[in-house]
Amino acid sequence: MNTRFPAPFLSRALRTAAALALAAGLAWSGLPAGAQNLFAPAITVNDQVITRYELEQRARFQAALRVPGDPLETAREELINDRLKLMVLKQAGIELSEEDITAGMEELAGRANLSLNEFLTVLQQQGVAPQTLRDFTKVGLGWREYTRARFLSRARPTPEEIDRAMGTSGTGSVQVLLSEFIVPLNDQNAAQVEELVEQVAKLKGYDSFSAAATQYSAAGSRGDGGRLPWMPLTKLPPQLQEVVLALQPGEISEPLPLQGAVALFQMRGLREVEGAAPRFSAIEYATYFLPGGRTPEALAAAQQW
Questions:
Q1: pLDDT tens per residue, range 162-183
Q2: d(Cα 70, Cα 59) in Å, to the nearest integer?
Q3: Engineering a disulfide at 169: which of 45, 163, 189, 190 sits with its beta carbon 3.0 to 4.6 angstroms away?
Q4: How far apart, in whole angstroms, are the C-alpha atoms of residue 165 and residue 175?
Q5: Cα distance between residue 141 and residue 86, in whole Å
Q6: Are 225 and 216 in contact (CB under 8 A)?
Q7: 36 phi, psi to nearest 5 deg
Q8: How far apart are CA 254 and CA 267, in angstroms?
Q9: Is 181 within 8 Å of 216 (Cβ atoms)?
Q10: What secondary structure letter does DSSP report for 284?
Q11: For residue 295, which phi and psi values (nearest 5 degrees)?
Q12: Considering just the CA atoms, what is the radius of gyration of the chain in Å?
């Protein structure tokens, strides 16, 4: 079955992709053991086919990275979102070079303190093909460029635009309004935390997220339902800035690993504020004396300056 989705320049299409897919009845045939043709279509999104092989590979990739939740279900949702993202990126004219993609793969490997070759070897030991990592990286980098373009007018911002968004030009800055949910993670509670975070990530609405933060979050903001005040985007770590910019109001981020904890963030607002008027610590001036004092002749000469 082929279900069609519009691909407008709106990330809300991605936010509701899974719900739309279920409501419209996307073709889904699962991954039965011993499937005779792994390259047979499993899901079709706007004439774009997702094969059983891709599903299996992404599930293996998710399992290798220890992503919370059921690997197959997560793979299914991510691949649907990826196809929708690729449609948006194509319309936006965003293309990545092979050098960009390779650099992105090296960045992912570096997060595990591995070289790219070492990372690929580890993945291959888990049954994950290099192309799977490449496809994952291509969509992620492309979407990063797209989210930057949404706030800086184009995908390749000028230095002046970067300064403006990051608040370093003195003329304005981007501020975000977030809620946070942070729980400690260790070997003893890993299973319980994984289940809890998965449930909270699926919540809808601000009140539900705040109630969960009040009850379970270990952050100091739990007393206010996890709500944080407006803050400049630059106050967040660079990796988190990219995650936050991709969120829509009310949307909850994917689980983010911290040092000894796991975090979720909910977007409550985004705004651009004007910079304060320039302040002068000193003003230089000069006094020019005209001969004749305040005589009519001297005043007439002064008006000519």
A1: 555 555 444 457 899 999 999 9
A2: 8
A3: 163
A4: 9
A5: 11
A6: no
A7: -75, -30
A8: 12
A9: yes
A10: -
A11: -70, 155
A12: 26
Both tokens of 149, joined, read 């373009």
**CA 43 to chain CA centroid, nearest Å:** 25
Tokens of residue 119, six digits: 């990372």
Instruction: Yes or no: say if 54 and 102 are a contact pair by the CB < 8 Å rule.
Output: no
Q: What is the pLDDT of residues 8-23, one digit of tens each?
A: 333 333 433 333 333 3
Close Cβ partners of 20 (under 8 Å, ≥ 6 residues apart): 5
Q: Which structure tokens are listed for 183? A: 């729980």
The answer to whether 258 and 182 are in contact (CB under 8 A) is yes
CA distance 156 to 100: 13
pLDDT tens, residue by residue, 111-158: 888 999 999 999 999 999 999 999 999 998 888 787 666 544 433 445
Give the chain's domains with CATH numbers: 12-152 (1.10.4030.10), 172-274 (3.10.50.40)
For residue 152, count other CB atoms closer than 10 A to its CB.
18
User: Smallest Cα–Cα separation from 31: which of 79, 90, 66, 92?
Assistant: 79
Spell out the alpha helix ranges (H) of the chain: 12-15, 17-24, 52-64, 71-92, 98-111, 116-125, 130-152, 159-166, 190-201, 206-216, 238-245, 296-302
Q: Concatenate the DSSP letters of all residues of 61-111 into one string.
A: HHHHTT-SS-HHHHHHHHHHHHHHHHHHHHHHT----HHHHHHHHHHHHHH
| 190 within 8 A of 243, measured Cβ to Cβ | no
- Alpha-carbon gap, residue 128 to 134, rounded angstroms: 11
In the block, residue with structure tokens 């793979």: 75
